[in-house]
UniProtKB/TrEMBL annotation, chain A:
Name of the molecule in the record: LYR motif containing 4
Family statement: Belongs to the complex I LYR family.
GO biological process: [2Fe-2S] cluster assembly; [4Fe-4S] cluster assembly
Recorded superkingdom: Eukaryota
Positions of the Complex 1 LYR protein domain: 7-64
One Pfam family this sequence matches: Complex1_LYR
Gene name in the database record: LYRM4
Coiled-coil regions listed in the entry: none
GO molecular function terms listed in the Swiss-Prot or TrEMBL record: protein homodimerization activity; structural molecule activity
Gene Ontology cellular component annotations, sorted alphabetically: mitochondrial [2Fe-2S] assembly complex; nuclear body
PANTHER family: LYR MOTIF-CONTAINING PROTEIN 4 (PTHR13166:SF7), PROTEIN C6ORF149 (PTHR13166)
Entry-linked InterPro entries: Complex1_LYR_dom, Complex1_LYR_LYRM4, ISC_assembly_LYR
UniProtKB/TrEMBL annotation, chain B:
Originating gene: NFS1
PROSITE patterns membership: AA_TRANSFER_CLASS_5 (PS00595)
GO cellular component, one term: nucleus
Gene Ontology molecular functions: cysteine desulfurase activity; iron-sulfur cluster binding; metal ion binding
UniProt cofactor(s): pyridoxal 5'-phosphate
Entry annotated with the keyword Iron: yes
Entry's Gene Ontology BP terms: iron-sulfur cluster assembly
Organism expressing this protein natively: Phocoena sinus (Vaquita)
EC number: 2.8.1.7
Name this protein carries in UniProt: cysteine desulfurase
PANTHER family: CYSTEINE DESULFURASE (PTHR11601:SF34), CYSTEINE DESULFURYLASE FAMILY MEMBER (PTHR11601)
InterPro entries the record matches: Aminotrans_V_dom (IPR000192), Aminotrans_V_PyrdxlP_BS (IPR020578), PyrdxlP-dep_Trfase (IPR015424), PyrdxlP-dep_Trfase_major (IPR015421), PyrdxlP-dep_Trfase_small (IPR015422)
Amino acid sequence: MAASSRAQVLDLYRAMLRESKHFSAYNYRSYAIRRIRDAFRENKSVKDPVQIQALMNKAKRDLGIIRRQVHIGQMYSTDKLIIENQEKPRT
Amino acid sequence: MLLRTSWRLVAAAAPAALWPRAKAPTRGLRLRVVDHAPQSAVPSDAATAPEAESVLRPLYMDVQATTPLDPRVLDAMLPYLVNYYGNPHSRTHAYGWESEAAMERARQQVASLIGADPREIIFTSGATESNNIAIKELEAAIQPDTSLVSVMTVNNEIGVKQPIAEIGHICSSRKVYFHTDAAQAVGKIPLDVNDMKIDLMSISGHKIYGPKGVGAIYIRRRPRVRVEALQSGGGQERGMRSGTVPTPLVVGLGAACEVAQQEMEYDHKRISKLAERLTQKIMKSLPDVVMNGDPEHHYPGCINLSFAYVEGESLLMALKDVALSSGSACTSASLEPSYVLRAIGTDEDLAHSSIRFGIGRFTTEEEVDYTVEKCIYHVKRLREMSPLWEMVQDGIDLKSIKWTQH
């Protein structure tokens, strides 16, 4: 399989962000969005295709974790935090 | 055949109706907080807003007491709570083997975080049990001149970092055992048991975004440190801690350690920035605020501030929308001021005015700003009501007052 193209990386980035926005817990939601952005930004200039593939594989596993944990969080969701109705819903 | 297909189509078409989403019972403490949404002049239809009050949870700023599970940790644990439920000490079947493999993988993850060998990690029920095992070693010592030095790596009340490497080298040269309770430090600052010459280390799961009820003790093999078991039984964990190792919990501890190793630098950078923001904003807006603990040798995520002329408990009650603490959770039932503050020579009155702010991996800038805003507001309000504050404003030196007896 050829190394991941720029388009594939961007697709995965968008998929991870999209999924993370569904965390019902404010702290998990904000952490996931922030961490994903920072991680992809940090690795923006990696050139080695082996390293890129390793990072992509880890990101795909993390996307799986996010999907499952979002689902569990929604099943066990509770009241919002005091701070949530004051700011825009998706940070 | 046709009948079966049509049933399948019906089942696929109306899942929502047939399987109503089972909502987990909510047992959270419900605060009655009035929602200050703007009331429109036109009365809205009754169906949408029967009550003006909504129920909202406080922000969590007490990470030194305990931490939330990182989603990556829960994800690692769940399979062992659902399908892979074997006893890791069962040697005769796949359930046991897969559970044992998970336990050993977790052991390696914990060891890797502190630069140890997996054979030096014994799983326990938490840092408290680990501390007890380490201290009991002192009683088990045969030589009259054997002794043990035990120091907290990072203090849980004021966040001070002890000079572990220096202490370790001194102990090693004097042939004295060195134990450290690293519950608040593991995964947050770099620790290496060989560089720092640590012989025994206590690790807590729920301080590093892992599950409660699990921890570990690191026991050096070279040179051998002998400990006496606290609980006896089936001889698990090399005879040092009998009892079935709880695979789901240790998998969680291992995952938490692995995540911590990966995220340590990122978390430290972000937490330092947020801590700086919190202290600067508070100190800029309020006079007579003291930060407890050495500012240079300090873990940023634990900020202990004393607000002069304000009683700590009343400030905590006022900040009801933020989960905070003053002093250690372990002794929170008593009204005594913190022994730590007393030990560093804090005045009695300042010791009673201390609040501990905890900043962790999941704390946001918005939460820090909200906490700061509420803190400043309530400190000002409480000071307005304080006769002591009034006297200080009039220029009276409180220390010169002779309080008469009635």
